[in-house]
Specification:
By secondary structure, the protein is mainly alpha-helical. The protein has 13 helices and 4 strands.
Length: 328
């Protein structure tokens, strides 16, 4: 809980700093404009969905590097099916879900049955799914054009709050996904199994937990949410290029989970922490875009430095707490 409070305080600090440097010091109203705030919420929601997915994998002590490529496969493949190939929507959507499900199941099978390392399995997936997407589409951009406006409302629509500001629909989808994920993790026996698996796989197995099934469940959840994210991302942008759509998204998702309190060794993590971590990363990206004093070409360096500082702070805090307990 202290970790979540710490990252929330950092989020507030970065938010206020961005407002001062972008608006107060320049006399503009770019950061606090309704357009920018809505866009910030929308991006946080979209990345938050895939962040929640990878959090389940990290909690079990695993990792998934293929998220960005799954986003690409679904995000490019869906408009390619319904627009380029003319496949009906009622068929294309189940195909997207089935592909995401099969990816998760295959990851789980390779890790639990074939005893391959999650890093190797998902790294191969990162290469395989993007290469498959580029091959299917012949590296051509896929998009909706002026069609499917009703479906695209799920990603770029908003619920009016005031005459100037609206609540992005993806934020409502994130709230639904987060609520379901939190209930699964904190209020069901499967959530306790996942946490136990991350704490000590051998002890969990000896206590009667089907660790193979729980590991597979975590990767299935991750892939399904990556598929949902890919669908929403392409509905938001309206078009996607297979060569770069979803690039680095897995790193943003993993970073958000780690910043939000998920231990890379497994066994701990909260959904609200992941959402706050996602919001912090998207806020930093927004800050780099709006603040003139920060060059945009060092975006990844700034985000990397913040993540490293957060990880170091967490480790130092753990050592201090351990030392105090030892002294007591």
């Amino acid at each position: 809980m202290k970790r979540i409070l710490g990252i929330f305080v950092l989020l507030v600090f970065v938010y206020l700093t961005t407002w001062v440097m972008s608006d107060v010091m320049t006399g503009r109203k770019s950061f606090l404009s309704a357009f920018n705030q809505e866009n910030l919420l929308r991006r946080t929601a979209l990345f938050g969905i895939i962040g929640i997915g990878v959090a389940f994998v990290i909690i079990t002590g695993g990792i998934d590097l293929s998220i960005g490529s799954v986003v690409c496969l679904v995000g490019v493949g869906f408009p390619w099916m319904v627009v380029t190939k003319g496949i009906p929507l009622a068929i294309a959507l189940p195909i997207v879900v089935a592909v995401s499900l099969i990816i998760g199941l295959s990851h789980g099978w390779l890790i639990t049955k074939m005893r391959l390392q999650p890093f190797v399995v998902t790294l191969c997936g990162l290469l395989l799914y993007r290469g498959l997407t580029r091959g299917l589409t012949n590296d051509q951009t896929a998009g909706f054009g002026n069609d499917f406006k009703g479906l695209r409302w799920l990603a770029n629509g908003e619920i009016p709050i005031t005459s100037e500001f609206g609540l992005p629909v993806p934020l409502l989808i994130l709230a639904l996904v987060a609520t379901m994920a939190a209930i699964l993790l904190n209020k069901t026996i499967y959530g306790r199994y996942l946490l136990a698996l991350g704490n000590n796989e051998e002890a969990a197995r000896f206590s009667g937990i089907d660790t193979n099934r729980m590991t597979t469940l975590a990767y299935v959840i991750c892939s399904l949410l990556a598929g949902l994210g890919g669908l929403l991302f392409v509905l938001d942008t309206n078009s996607a290029q297979p060569v770069d759509f979803g690039n680095f998204y897995e790193l943003f998702a993993i970073a958000a989970a780690v910043l939000g309190g998920c231990n890379l060794r497994g066994g701990s993590g909260t959904i609200i922490g992941v959402i706050i971590g996602t919001a912090l990363i998207q806020l930093l990206r927004n800050m780099i875009t709006l603040v003139d004093e920060i060059p945009q070409n060092i975006e990844y360096a700034v985000i990397g430095a913040v993540i490293l500082a957060g990880a170091l702070g967490d480790e130092i805090a753990k050592r201090v707490i351990a030392a105090r307990r030892g002294a007591a």
